[in-house]
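Reopening this one. Same input as before:
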Amino acid sequence: MPAHIIDGNQIARAIRAELTQEIEQLKTEYQITPGLATVLVGENPASQSYVRMKNKACHEMGMYSEQHTLPATVSETELLALIAQLNQAKNIHGILVQLPLPKQIDEQKIIEAILPEKDADGFHPMNMGKLLIGLPGFRPCTPYGVQKMLTYSGYDPAGKHVVVVGRSNIVGKPIANLLLQKEKEANATVTVCHSRTANLPEIARQADILIAAIGQPEFITAEMVKDGAVVIDVGVNRVEDPSAPKGYRLVGDVKFDEVAPKCAAISPVPGGVGPMTITMLLHNTVQAARASIRG
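Same output, byte for byte:
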């Protein structure tokens, strides 16, 4: 039986439909339009594309968005000054600084400069700490999107063995902590593998749910996946392909054609986790706007 394809676009549309109602309520009852500020430094084509998609999604949802584009030569002091300005802006509820940043800028310092209550990306140490101990707070968008993909597709992680391949602060660590929590949509047993894991294929084969977030094209092969597993591919990698119109194509961290026949379900690249990341960014911004009512 062929694997069920977990369609991130379809799930994202369902969540955005729910968000649209919440946005309308904020506008009509409280005269608040959720606002997101995006900050783009330099001319990285992938970053430009991501920011463009995020702003487009805001406009489609009836939210307010503004983009601040800075040259790659901008100083850390100038970027911190912009963040301080956005922290004070009443019409801005969420702030997103697109990563990566140029070498002259300390990314962690920038992340920590954003007010935790405007941290739409969910990367501030305060929000990460709340995630770790199970307190409410903004969840990092990609891990949160993965969790929602599993829930909406009917693959409850409760009681399952989840293996996460990758230990980044953006995906690997937070998704492991999200699925460990003693709450709905979680309660999994989680193992984290990484580049120094000695017997990675053997551990990966134990997974009921395998989450690939290692940042290496088609790293996960069929021999690393057990029959009937659910596979979520977080990776987005450009590989050269002279036959493609742009000279490259996008692939995930999973060798899709080889792995899919073994799976109960699998997410594609593109069209899997990507749309969910943007949707959860919108979700966090709307929640920040709602929290602003309470002062």
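So the earlier flakiness isn't reproducible anymore. For the record, The longest helix spans residues 8-30.
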